[in-house]
From TrEMBL:
InterPro entries: YciB. This is Inner membrane-spanning protein YciB. It is a multi-pass membrane protein. Belongs to the YciB family. Its main location: membrane. Plays a role in cell envelope biogenesis, maintenance of cell envelope integrity and membrane homeostasis. The chain crosses the membrane at residues 12-29, 41-62, 74-90, 102-122, 143-160, 166-184. Signal peptide: none annotated. Pfam families: IspA (PF04279).
Length: 203
């Protein structure tokens, strides 16, 4: 099924909106505590509880408007439900803080598995957006697999050794900037291995 055209601003809002809302809500509620059913929950737990339906709603809207949701977005939504649910159920913020570790470990593992088979699974997902020669896809996939593995390790270090405030800032801004910076630094590969369009006969 071909994807539908969607306003880029709307698409960006649906993809990044939940993260922005999570950060804003955390800033407002981080120093507060709430009691439900005789159990006390801090602001982080409450914000996590709200983040779960929000990510499901925005993912559903993205699918409805564009007719397509990537496997990465589906995996992210599933892990948010699982680890966010455990965080709220057990009243333990460690589970939600581990979520990025699981996400990036999963992505690195999938890409690494493809590389072991001599394939670039990244190419299957992004070939229409960035037509590259096979060598280019393999280089980009190796780099991205290592990058995701590095982010998984970094997330573990930060949430285990730093404050919740530091982790929220890292999750909201650090991870987003890191992913953006990674692709910005791959211009040499994209240029060197770009597939040149063949001129039509008789043109």
């Amino acid at each position: 099924m071909a994807g539908k055209k969607i306003n880029p601003i709307v698409k960006l809002g649906l993809e990044l909106g939940p993260i922005v809302v999570f950060f804003a809500a955390y800033v407002m509620l981080r120093d507060k505590a709430f009691s439900f059913g005789g159990t006390e929950y801090d602001g982080f737990i409450l914000v996590t509880a709200g983040f779960i339906p929000l990510i499901l709603i925005t993912t559903g809207l993205l699918w409805k408007l564009s007719g397509h949701v990537s496997k990465m977005q589906i995996a992210t939504a599933v892990l948010v439900v699982v680890f966010g649910g455990l965080t709220v159920w057990l009243n333990d913020d460690r589970f939600f803080k581990m979520k990025p570790t699981m996400i990036y470990t999963l992505f690195a593992g999938v890409l690494g598995f493809g590389l072991l088979r001599g394939q670039s699974y990244l190419q299957f997902v992004m070939e229409e957006m960035m037509p590259l020669k096979r060598e280019g896809w393999m280089i980009l996939t190796r780099r991205l697999a290592l990058f995701f593995a590095g982010l998984a390790v970094l997330n573990e270090v930060i949430w285990r050794t730093m404050s919740t405030d530091a982790w929220v800032n890292f999750k909201t801004f650090g991870l987003t900037i890191a992913v953006f910076a990674f692709f910005m630094t791959q211009g040499g590969v994209l240029q060197k291995y770009a597939v040149e369009e063949q001129p039509e006969d008789g043109a």
